[in-house]
Amino acid sequence: MSKLFKLKVDTPGGTLFEDDVLQVEIKTPNGMVGFLADHQPSIGSVLPSICYIRDDKGERVSAVVNTGIYRMDGKQINIITDFFDFTDKINQSVFEIRKQRIEQAISNKNVKNIKIYEGIQRKLQNELEKLSKLSKKT
Q1: Could you give the CA distance from residue 29 to residue 48 in angstroms, rounded to a whole number?
Q2: Environment class of 94 (CB within 10 Å of its CB; exposed 0-12, middle 13-18, buried 19+)
Q3: CA distance 13 to 32
Q4: What is the pLDDT of residues 81-91, one digit of tens each?
Q5: Three-state DSSP string of 42-54
Q6: What does each C-alpha distance from 46 to 7, 49, 63, 84, 105 come to in angstroms?
Q7: What rounded mean pLDDT belongs to the chain?
Q8: CA distance 77 to 130
Q9: What span, in angstroms and rounded, lies between the C-alpha atoms of 60 and 30?
Q10: How do residues 47-65 score in pLDDT, each as one tens digit?
């Protein structure tokens, strides 16, 4: 059996996931990167994508992760992001929560220029569509 190592996912709200895993695959600016136990220590960026986790039973599960950073020390990989959820748990309420957070951020900016506001709204819609497509792929 392959060697296990710890995966810990932290968000501003606290630790969302912490368990022993066989493998983690995340998308970085250089493409997909896979991590196993005793991987060379590294630090890098995580891009918004589907990440894959092979659990201690060898099952491959997927999760949606937003922009963040990772730190691998060979024994544990930490992912720090503002959004992480397993794709089998993603539903419309997740998208609504994300939409509310973005709309709140927009309202806090006191956007006065309607063109800027409309551009932000388009970006919001695009982000929600991307999340929806990602959750349907798995």
Answers
A1: 10
A2: middle
A3: 26
A4: 998 888 877 66
A5: EEEEECCEEEEEE
A6: 14, 8, 13, 12, 22
A7: 83
A8: 26
A9: 22
A10: 998 999 999 999 999 998 9
